[in-house]
Amino acid sequence: MTRKRVGVLMSGRGSNMEALLAAASDPAFPAEIALVMSNNADAGGLATAARQGVTTAVVDHRPYGKDRESFERALDARMRDAGVDLVCLAGFMRVLTPVFVGAWDGRLLNIHPSLLPAYTGLHTHERALNDGVRVHGCTVHFVTPVLDVGPIIAQAVVPVVSGDDPDALAARVLRQEHQLYPRALELIASGAAWLENGRVAYRDAAAAARATLFDPTP
Predict the structure, then answer these.
(1) Rounded CA gap, 174 and 181, in Å?
(2) 152 with 69, same domain?
């Protein structure tokens, strides 16, 4: 099996990056983490990745000012130098331009803390509670130029329980994020799922079933 080479972009602690690293530590996993890169030299996730022997890099966005495309060309060059096949965003706090997104079309994944298409953007848990929803969750999707509306690869669902506040709900969702992101990457890297005509296609019913997680635990 030829494992897909994955580049991870992150800006902070990188807990989802850690989940991807843990999954990729299994030689049977169809992807390996080839590069962890951040726009923030102080990002805690860089040290975590380095301790596990993963190549890390920093491309600080600040010297580029408003020239986002030059910043992204530097990101792109590092990815290609590392032989990256797929890119995973894991708490990368920069909005990417259509140029970068188009260059990695069908190979650029992100995880978002809501059941898309509901609650794009920020403060998803607070907004869900304010609306009185009974379930919430997270979504792994392909990135498109429009924020948080790309084709859905996989979703995890958690209950909303009486007495929840945004922090409690966020913690419940985060536990599922750490399971869902590796599973979604596995589906794409193994060829069990792919982007086709603007939607995600699955190899068979078993692959499609793996794209949904339910956690009934409050």
Answers:
(1) 11
(2) no
Q: How many alpha carbons fall within 13 Å on the CB side of residue 185?
A: 35
For residues 98 and 117, membership in a common domain is answered with no
Q: Which positions make up the binding site for (6R)-10-formyltetrahydrofolate?
A: 68, 110
Q: What is the pLDDT of residues 132-174, one digit of tens each?
A: 999 999 999 999 999 999 999 999 999 999 999 999 999 999 9
User: Are 86 and 179 members of one domain?
Assistant: no
- 6 and 88 housed in the same domain: yes
- Determine the Cα–Cα distance for residues 177 and 44; give it in Å rounded to an integer: 19
The CB density around residue 2, as the number of other CB atoms within 10 Å, is: 6
Indicate the residue among 73, 104, 135 that finishes a domain: 104
112 is catalytic: yes
- Catalytic one of 112, 125, 141, 178: 112
Q: What is the largest CA-CA distance in the chain?
A: 50
On whether the pTM is more than 0.85, the answer is yes
Binding residues: 14-16, 68, 110
Do 41 and 58 touch, CB atoms closer than 8 A? yes
Total domains in the chain come to 2
**Residues spanned by the domain of 209:** 111-218
Q: 58 - beta bridge partners?
A: 38
Phi, psi of 73 (to 5 degrees): -65, -35
Return the CATH number at 150: 3.40.50.170
Residue given tokens 């898309």 in the structure block: 116
